[in-house]
Amino acid sequence: MSSNLETALYVFVLATFLGLEVIRKVSPLLHTPLMSLTNAISAISVVGAILITTAEGATTLSKVLGFIAITAAVTNIVSGYLITDRMLKMFKREEKR
Amino acid sequence: MGHLVNYIYICSAALFILSLKWMNSPVTARRGVFSGEIGMLMAVTGTLLSHQVFNWQWLLAAVLIGTAAGIPIAYIMPMTAVPQRTAMSHACGALAAALVGTAEFYREPNQPKYVLVALIVETLLGFLTFTGSLMAMGKLQEILPQRPITYRNQNLTNLGLLVLAAALGVRLIVVPTDTWVFPIFAVLSLIFGVLLIIPIGGADMPTVIALLNSYAGLSACAMGFVLDNRLLVIAGALDGSSGLILSIIMCKAMNRSFTNVLFGAFGQLQVKAVHSEERPVRSASPEEAGAILESASNVIIVPGYGLAVAQAQHKIRELFDALMRRGVDVKFAIHPVAGRMPGHMNVLLAEADIPYDRLVGMEDINSEFPQCDVALVIGANDVTNPAARSDPSSPIYGMPILDVDKAHSVMVIKRSMRPGFAGIDNDLYYLGKTLMLFGDAKSFVADILKELPVAALAAR
């Protein structure tokens, strides 16, 4: 079990440093879309919600909490990706006059 | 199948990282969204294929409701409401994490200690971010007062509450079988989220939204530890570090520390600093302003939150076009904390079809103000206050500002002489080269435009 913890901590530390490096390079122009994109990505918690809700012999409590969690996460996924794309479509370069 | 899903997760993680990498330029950014979508689709499909799905009707109903709610939010939401939407999605994300943690705790309280530690972190951050984001959303939507709400011993109360919640969390880790402690722990976390945000004023929202973003990500990350799922750890850590970087950028742009933003109740304490004496200002009419702009060879427009409030972005685009057609070089100076969330002004101006090459960040534009004929300030205040450079007694002393006062002449569109959010008088308005243009940003710009007709240009 503790080896699982170790691996997960390695993954966490490396992902955090990678995230810091990648995000640092994001243009300040795009900070708003960046936030809605990372928001959509972190809605990957839907995977956890699905596992809780659809497990064999899930209690009613699990099903209800999982149901709300899936709804909230799916709302974030759908609205997050779509609104990010909607915003990015608006960023246009200057036309050559 | 159990093994296959792990490889699918690895691909998803790679796609998420690429997705963020492509956000570094507007040219590749839309590819980034696409790669994020594919990553998400793979992860969800992989999860469903690799586990036996029971209670599928619950799953289906939740997905349908979520999709039905998500699509209108994405398409109907006006761009001026983007900060509210972002706060709402932080709330949704945090709620999902907190509820999964709660369900997992009641499913099996007797877990290895490190799982319980992660679970307590997940639910604590999840619940406090949930209510905190709802409060932020209420303030941004102006359902709640934007001014900081303060009372005596506020920080002490908040700190006490957090310590109490954490203590109950520790107790749950040590004696997980006492499940009755959990609801109390959850309620305290929820209350703490509310109390954390009410003393924070509207001008500090960019930092707070970024911080809540970080918390929501870390909560999802902790869920990865609880469920032993590396993809959750990676995606959560990416979101957490993104929020962290943004909040550091915001804090630097205000020359303030995290603690100061969270516990300083900016705007409340400084009300005393308002100068009471009347100082003379020069004002001008739309006709005069139009003539000055027309005769300039370069103009820098400085937008602020007031532009969002007045919904003036499309009128400003018309002004931009009218001036560019007359050979005036127009740029926009974007302060990092202008508006209510990181990058707020860029999105508004991009919505109005202003090319992004014309939007220039503070560090690059400041050297251009001394050569600039006219600086036109629209709805920005504290970020242009020269006292931040020159007056050590000013509450905003040391904050990096746009050097608007170095332009040859300055025009400020403002409703009245009422001081800005921080309650600090702006010396810029009293300079000899400053003209105040009193009125609503949108209608004033419309009046200026009447002086710059397209027809007059064609007749030349």
Report the radius of gyration of chain A as a whole number of Å: 18 Å
Helix content of chain B: 55-70%
Structural class of chain A: mainly alpha
Q: List low-pLDDT spans of chain A.
A: none
- So what's the overall shape of chain A? flat
Let me know the average pLDDT of chain A.
Answer: 92
- Protein structure class of chain B: alpha/beta
The helical percent of chain A reads over 70%
What is the subunit arrangement here? Answer: heterodimer
Provide a descriptive summary of the structure in words.
In chain A, helix 3 (46-54) packs antiparallel against helix 4 (60-90). The radius of gyration of chain A is 18 Å and the shape is flat. The model of chain A has no long low-confidence stretch (mean pLDDT 92). Chain A has a domain at 28-90. In chain A, 77% of the residues lie in helices and 0% in strands. Chain A has helices spanning 2-24, 31-42, 46-54, 60-90. Chain A is an all-alpha fold and 97 residues long. Chain B has 460 residues and is an alpha/beta fold. Chain B has 2 domains: 77-263, no CATH class; 286-459, TPP-binding domain (Rossmann fold, 3-Layer(aba) Sandwich). Chain B is 58% helix and 7% strand. Chain B has a 6-stranded parallel beta sheet. Chain B is globular. At the A-B interface, helix 1, helix 2, helix 3 and helix 4 of A face helix 1, helix 2, helix 3, helix 4 and helix 8 of B.
